[in-house]
Amino acid sequence: MESRDVIEEYLAAIETVRAAFGDMSRELLFARPVAGKWSSQEVLCHLVDTDFAIALRIRAALTRDCPRLQTATREEITTGLAVDARDAAEELTLFQTIRCETARIVRAMLPNALDRQAVLVAADGAETTRTVQQFLTGITKHVAHHLAFVYEKRRALGLAAPQAH
Question: Mapping DSSP to helix (H, G, I), strand (E, B) and coil, where does residue 32 land?
Answer without folding.
Answer: coil
